Amino acid sequence: MTHQNKTLLAFDAVNVGDALPAFDLPPVSRLGLALYCGASGDHNPIHVDIDFAKSAGMPDVFAHGMLSMAWLGRLLTNWVPQTALRDYSVRFAAITQVGERITCAGKVTEKLERNGERCVRLDIHTTNQDGQVKLAGEAVVALA
């Protein structure tokens, strides 16, 4: 099965412990945060106005949680077509600061059948350059 020029992975070719192709992002920038404000419609000043962030007790502006979630969504859709996603959830572990270099990674933790589909469960996460987990999540994707 193909979709969006991507072939769905074969269930039998995927094993528990397999790593998803990880990727690194450029350092989080103020410009990137401002652009995300416009693209997402989330104009909370804590993400772009340093004076506002400091008045709220933060040392600087920081990345939107949903931006980090979007990066993990890209990790998933780099691996399988979007139509293969069945579940996706995250928990926010730590604030992603301006200047941090984020890596998105994950691995297969379970093979299962669900609603008549052969699926895999994935543990996914973002970490900074020091290995600190910023966002941790789980996803279930259907495979061929």
Describe how the helices and strands are arranged.
Layout (H helix, E strand, L loop, with lengths): L1 E2 L2 E2 L15 E2 L5 H11 L9 H6 L9 H15 L5 E8 L10 E12 L2 E11 L5 E10 L2
Antiparallel strand pairs: 1-2, 3-5, 4-7, 5-6, 6-7
Task: Pick out its properties.
144 residues, alpha+beta, five-stranded antiparallel β-sheet
Description:
The chain has 144 residues and is of the alpha+beta class. It is 22% helix and 33% strand. It has three helices and seven strands; from the N terminus they run βββαααββββ. The protein has helices spanning 30-40, 50-55, 65-79, and strands at residues 2-3, 6-7, 23-24, 85-92, 103-114, 117-127, 133-142. The strands form two sheets. It has a five-stranded antiparallel sheet, covered by helices on one side. It has a two-stranded antiparallel ribbon with strand order 1-2. β6 (117-127) and β7 (133-142) form a beta hairpin. It is elongated. The model has no long low-confidence stretch (mean pLDDT 95).
Bin the strand percentage: 25-35%
The radius of gyration over CA amounts to 17 Å
- How does the overall form come out from the CA principal axes? elongated
Order of helices and strands: EEEHHHEEEE
Strand numbers in spatial order across the main sheet: 3-5-6-7-4
Structural classification: alpha+beta
What share of the residues lie within helices?
10-25%
Can you give me a brief rundown of this structure?
By secondary structure, this protein is an alpha+beta fold.
